[in-house]
TrEMBL record:
<dbReference type="Pfam" id="PF13561">
    <property type="entry name" value="adh_short_C2"/>
</dbReference>
<dbReference type="GO" id="GO:0004316">
    <property type="term" value="F:3-oxoacyl-[acyl-carrier-protein] reductase (NADPH) activity"/>
</dbReference>
<comment type="similarity">
    <text>Belongs to the short-chain dehydrogenases/reductases (SDR) family.</text>
</comment>
<feature type="domain" description="Ketoreductase">
    <location>
        <begin position="7"/>
        <end position="180"/>
    </location>
</feature>
<protein>
    <submittedName>
        <fullName>3-oxoacyl-[acyl-carrier protein] reductase</fullName>
        <ecNumber>1.1.1.100</ecNumber>
    </submittedName>
</protein>
<keyword id="KW-0560">Oxidoreductase</keyword>
<dbReference type="InterPro" id="IPR057326">
    <property type="entry name" value="KR_dom"/>
</dbReference>
<dbReference type="InterPro" id="IPR036291">
    <property type="entry name" value="NAD(P)-bd_dom_sf"/>
</dbReference>
<dbReference type="InterPro" id="IPR002347">
    <property type="entry name" value="SDR_fam"/>
</dbReference>
Length: 238
């Protein structure tokens, strides 16, 4: 484990699934960890704060609370997201825009709020949690795949704007991960999905958190604007 001063880490949607595992990983590293939620319990050792990433005022209030309690945010992990699947010809415009507002615009709002403090601290890390769907596309998920693809452009644009100020933004793109969400899928569906993965298995959430904590570490100090797939090879070439 690298020796360094504890940082304030904020993880949006860090109360369950991949976000909760990322939160636990940063807690284990000795960081001060805040997670946003919408009215549920948060992982042990974390500071929970309610936040709706689709509302700028809510994002600002959450950051202000975290800054007061834990100090300025040095690492932002934008993980909050949602799905509202449907084929294009049946998808309502509201359905499309709602997913983009949460997954993409929510990450933009949080990044916009985080960057000024990172500039004052002379550095910071922004890690956006995308998906293999954003690289490959996904039938029935034009909204979700578009939002997750947009995170790549967001991270790379942030890096071009603020990389010289020691603020690096990167993307982690998970594939099929063992979470409460996938636990609800049928074994037949999971088998079909695994058959497309070169490594032949699903991943655990801690395999995603390992990539995230590495991107936030000194070992990744020269990694910027990158897309790190954690997908067992499913999205190779993208």
């Amino acid at each position: 484990m690298e020796e360094r001063e504890p940082r304030t880490v904020l993880i949006t949607g860090g109360n369950r699934g991949i976000g909760a595992e990322i939160a636990r990983a940063f807690v284990a590293l000795g960081d001060r960890v805040a997670v946003t939620h919408r009215g549920s319990e948060t992982p042990e050792g974390t500071f929970g704060v309610e936040c709706d990433v689709t509302e700028t005022a809510s994002v600002d209030k959450a950051f202000t609370t975290v800054e007061r309690e834990l100090g300025p945010v040095g690492v932002l992990v934008s993980n909050a997201g949602m799905t509202a699947d449907g084929l294009l010809i049946r998808m309502k415009e509201e359905q499309f825009l709602r997913v983009l507002d949460t997954n993409l615009a929510g990450a933009w709002r949080c990044s916009k709020r985080a960057v000024p403090q990172m500039l004052r601290q002379r550095g910071g890390r922004i890690i956006l949690i995308s998906s293999v769907a954003g690289l490959l596309g996904s039938a029935g998920q034009t909204n979700y795949a578009s939002s997750k693809a947009g995170l790549v452009g967001l991270a790379r644009s942030l890096t071009r704007e603020y990389g010289a100020r020691n603020i690096a933004a990167n993307v982690v793109a998970p594939g099929l991960i063992e979470t409460d969400m996938t636990a609800g899928l049928s074994e037949a569906h999971l088998a079909e999905q695994r058959a497309q993965i070169p490594l032949g298995r699903t991943a655990t959430a801690d395999e995603v958190s390992g990539a995230v904590t590495w991107l936030a570490s000194d070992a990744a100090a020269y990694v910027a604007g990158a897309v790190i797939p954690v997908d067992g090879g499913l999205g190779m070439g993208h």
